[in-house]
Amino acid sequence: xxxxxxxxxxxxxxTFGIYIIIAWRSRVKETKEFYVASQGVPTLANGAAVAxxxxxxxxxxxxxxxxxxxxxxxSVYLMGWTGGYVLLALLLAPYLRKWGKFTVPEFVGDRxxxxxxxxxxxxxxxxxxxxxxxxxAGGGIVFSRFLGLSVEWGVVLVAVVIFIYxxxxxxxxxTYTQVAQYTVLIIAxxxxxxxxxxxxxxxxxxxxxxxxxLAELDSLSVEFGLNEFxxxxxxxxxxxxxxxxxxxxxxxxxxxxxxxxxxxYTTKTVRGARYSAFWALFFISLLYLTAPAVGAxxxxxxxxxxxxxxxxSLPDWINTWAPTGLVTVNEDVETIGTVSNLATSGADLxxxxxxxxxxxxxxxxxxxxxxxxxxxxxxxxxxxxxxxLLLVISSAASHDLYFRVFKKTGASEKEQMMVGRIxxxxxILFAIWAGINPPAFVAQVVAFAFGLAAATFFPIxxxxxxxxxxxxxxxxxxxxxxxxFTGTYMIYTLEVFGTxxxxxxxxxxxxxIGAIGAAINFIVIVxxxxxxxxxxxxxxxxxxxxxxxxxxxxxxxS
Amino acid sequence: xxxxxxxxxxxxPPEAEDTSWRKRYWKKNLRLMITLLVIWFTVSFGFGILLxxxxxxxxxxxxxxxxxxxxxxxxxxxxxxxxxYALWMDKIDDEFGVxxxxxxxxxx
Lengths: 558, 108
What we know:
The structure holds 2 protein chains of 2 kinds.
Chain A: H1 3-25, H2 31-36, H3 43-54, H4 57-70, H5 75-99, H6 104-111, H7 114-147, H8 151-201, H9 206-223, H10 239-256, H11 258-261, H12 270-306, H13 316-321, E1 327-329, E2 339-340, E3 349-351, H14 355-363, H15 368-406, H16 413-436, H17 442-466, H18 472-493, H19 513-531, H20 537-545
Parallel strand pairs in A: 2-3
Antiparallel strand pairs in A: 1-3
Helix pairs in contact in A: 1-8, 1-15, 3-8, 3-12, 3-15, 4-12, 4-14, 4-15, 5-10, 5-12, 6-7, 7-8, 7-15, 7-16, 7-17, 8-9, 8-12, 8-15, 8-16, 9-12, 10-17, 10-19, 12-14, 14-15, 15-16, 17-18, 17-19, 18-19
Chain B: H1 20-50, H2 52-55, E1 59-60, E2 63-64, H3 65-96
Antiparallel strand pairs in B: 1-2
Helix pairs in contact in B: 1-3
């Protein structure tokens, strides 16, 4: 075992031990604890839990690498995945918390109709499931690279630990492990970033100092056949309109994803939900503000490291990563003349986006404990998101489907808990299977889950809260047209489901179509709701009621 | 504290309660929300996408300004917007007597 492996084992065993201790201390007995942690989670803790839930293996491992090569246009992810929280905080979280209860499908069921609830529950399961598979595969990469374990055993090990704390502690166990996982992942992300910034510029604040290297990075990038980092609309073929629509789709999708919304049900008060949203975005921003800096510094170090070098004299990290197949070198050239992140580009050195962050300590020449910490951080990011998603799957399957469709009445508290736990266990087994044999289209589908969430969930939630006259037929019609429109365009433009890929219409990429799907959904709900009977008095009363944090106290002046 | 006319205090049973405060509360909430969303749109879609090219001609600390808004500035503003919303809503809740505080001044 070399020094890096020793430190990786050290940090992985240490952090996994912490998670299991937390799980044992927060095991639960009741459904209210299992699904919403008894609505007793303190604001700050909930903020950290949302952040860990949100920041997936893709955010931690993949995003900085993606930005390194996309350059300026990488901002679609930065703005898209943070700007959605403004919508969530202002338009959704406080009201859904006031309404209370356990799940997102449950809200639309109460607000619209039982059939909307079932469609929403199925959609929540499908969206969450595609996501979980990505997390499992991400965990597998970390294990295979750092510990020399096979991907299969890596996935199983991750699943067993998640199983222990998710089945024992439900939402409560997941929440408190997520707080620990956030701490691990943010430390692991920031330390190497600050160290690399200090090494390169002498200023240990990467968010500020990466400006200084941009001019040099631009000229080096051009030298190696890449786009300038700072040039707008060069990374995405669709240009400005596409960047606009993709950003909007990601924002609306962020605000509509059930595994994030569900976390706001766990706070003590409506006020707590508002402040949770603030803490959540604050914690998320620590990573998101750092990611473009990590991307820029790592790319600069990478390009400087290979400048003027031949295939035999490349930096060491390229050799350590070569067995993963994520770095390939053209051995036939004198010196490395071109660099790319695309496997099909034919460049002399091809570096996959996904390794840039995990390799950044090595690329920057940082010591072994930091490399080990990085691995533990990547695992924390993958596990925390997977656990949150598994809870959504479990609650939708048991609370919204099983006890609504198959066994409508007479389920005891004990029975409900049992079914919730079994659903969680089955979901984990599926996740293991899919993590070991990831379907080819998963990576693509995950990116499009946002578009689908934007085109289905977001409009029915917003109108459900802000427009009393929105009704069941309107929501059903809106959700189905949004889904059909967005899904059809994705199938039309992508080679995913065995169909051929067609050209993008009007420069709109399939990732950006969700914003248009959402607009169509809004229009359909309004038109159909106007043409059909308004919702019952009882429902309108409920919508009125969620606007106010609590009943008014006597003796107030205004 | 409030810019609207004072009304009789209503301590009676819920069915006799004067509910006109609800409209004013909701209106204040909506006004705050819309103001913050306009800022949200301006910094991200405005400065970070629609106006990014002209703003990139201004360079501060090595950052072309449009790029800075797209990768840094907009995120700072998002965090501040949510904080302002939470703080401001506390004030509105207090004003209308719907704040979630118990008699001791703590939060339930």
